[in-house]
Amino acid sequence: MLDALNQLAGGFGTILTPYNVMLIFLAGMIGTVVGALPGLGPSAGIALMLPLAAGMDHASGLSLLTGVYMGTMYGGRITSILINTPGDAPAIITALEGYPMMQRGRGGIALGISAFSSFIGGMFGLTVLIFFAPVVARNAIFLGPPEYFLLMLLGLSTIVLLAGEDMLKALLMVCFGVLVSTIGADYISGYVRFAPLPELIEGIDFVAIIIGLYGLGEVFHNLEHRVVLKLGKPSLRVADYVPSGGDLREAGAPTVRGSLMGTVIGILPGAGATIATFLSYALEKRLSKTPENYGKGEIAGLAAPEASNNASVPGSLIPLITLGIPGSGGTAIMLGALIMFGLQPGPLLMIKSGDVVWAMIAGLVLANVFLLLSNILLIPLFVNLLRGIQGVLASVVIALCVVGAFSLAYSTFNIWVALIFGVIGYLMRKNDYPTGPFILAVVLAPLAENYFRQSVMLGQGRMAIFWERPISVTIIGAMIAAIALTLGLRLLMRRRRAALQTGAVPSPRPTPETKNPTEEAE
Amino acid sequence: MTPRNRTSELLFLGGLALFAGITLVGSFGMPFTSGLTFGPGFLPLIMSVAVLAIGALIALRRTGAGQTAETPAAAPADTSPDPSTGPSPDPSADTTPATGDIRTVILCVVLIAVTIVAASYGSLLLALGVCIALITAFLLKRGWIVALVSTAITIAAVYAIFDLWLQIPIS
Known about the structure:
The structure holds 2 protein chains of 2 kinds.
Chain A (H helix, E strand, L loop, with lengths): L1 H14 L2 H19 L5 H13 L3 H26 L8 H12 L3 H34 L4 H12 L2 H4 L4 H15 L2 E2 L6 E2 L12 H19 L20 H23 L4 H16 L11 H25 L5 H12 L8 H4 L1 H36 L3 H17 L3 H18 L4 H24 L11 H33 L14 H5 L1
Antiparallel strand pairs in A: 1-2
Chain B lengths: L2 H26 L4 E2 L2 E2 L3 H22 L38 H20 L2 H16 L4 H22 L6
Antiparallel strand pairs in B: 1-2
Helix pairs in contact in B: 1-2, 3-4, 4-5
């Protein structure tokens, strides 16, 4: 442990020059802006900075890239909370609770809480990276395709939580999501499925789907119901932006749990931040005493996924640094950057180029601190900007969605995809079909399918491979327990509601049960 | 649920059924098994049947006699937040939903579609500018001056960020 601290001190010694400090600050800001733009996530941010980093020394170049990586994770939440348009996939969950908070006039507070949670998550992940990187990475390699498949299944089991009241509708959305995910080339056999156009051979871009489903779908809904945002006039009241002690206390435990979840999931190659945020949201909802308030601006549901989102960044760097395995799209580009700098990713990286790696880690710590400060200070700017344009917000969101979808492949094809999913998202919302299970299926199904088929291949056709190893059995146990617990709680809630309706039990809190006035009107 | 909502739900389910029907027919031509494992046709076949079956079940439930006993439309756990739940901390921060107007949605979708077609033949930025000016003026009813000024600012910002800085060829 002392050795790790010594190495980290050496890293700070390298990185604490005026040039590097300025560079890391700028990297964080650039990452924040790129992450906030719909369609551009960590991969795009790092890729954009690669040519610039190539001309720098190793430590500065890697700090620039990791700073941008961390910055995109902070940035993704901004448009999620303010306009319900996630900047990237891990920010989808942020919109579930952040946007309702914004609608209730607490957008600044939501940004503040998410910034704090992101900071704690990032620091937690970094601590694990600093002290436990080699140990954790050594254990992660014991997970094979059956365990990964079961992990994906565990993720899919969270639909029980994202389902809302009508489980049948949620199931339909899951099956629809799985079907959408099968479009394109099959990774195992190379067979091209349902791709009449060449653009579909690689499948439908997931980001185009979320831009349509959440961004355009929301605009269509607001246009139909003439929803007018009344966010008040631009103001600089500190109370509007800084979370109170009570808010932070409420976010505390979920942030710690989210940090742990994000780090662990981030370490697993292929899992990544998106899955970490879904799982961490599901966990919070499961632990909550008022799960019916989720989707209406619950602080715990905002804080935990944000923490796990940022904790997954250092988490995903662990297998990259120690084993040379990229755990996500962003780290895959980082792997390219390491090779570009002439470094050898793998077990020898920390031995042969330890000084560069520790400087990069020190740079990440610094970037995380800068990002907290800059994000807190920038909240009034973001919120007041939104207040300034609230009358024409629909047009601005459409412009961002169209350009964001175009920027995915520099073609109009993805704008068509976003438009189609915008209409689907609008119809889903109009008819109370939950979008969460659909998105979860689109994200997890391709991975689950591949791991499932690989596992069956490994087991030579025997299904017993899924419950032969202790890790698999543990995951299956966790899955069964999670589903049983959720269904049990759901049943209990339903009975309690029935009792409330008959007047047997005095009403505790009327607000969470209140129906949407639009539904009432209809 | 109003007749209009029922129509939109049946339209949605019909679209899903059409999609699932196409994938079901397509999956018949794909290998169900491949060597020691399942083939590329395995998942699409099962999921297409599942979508058709569950969709039919929901449609029957909607159109059938048991409509009164259907599940209450509680707020789904998705991004459909219910702004009316609970007192808003700031009364001025609430949203004001009114009666739905489906024509604005159709017009907006058509405008975006025309923009995409126009962008295929020329500049995305120009087509987008015209599109959002029309949306602001006609659908958001903000007047021409506000529409033109806000469009000019939005397009300038989009151009600066995406084209000049990120080098994405949108102009």
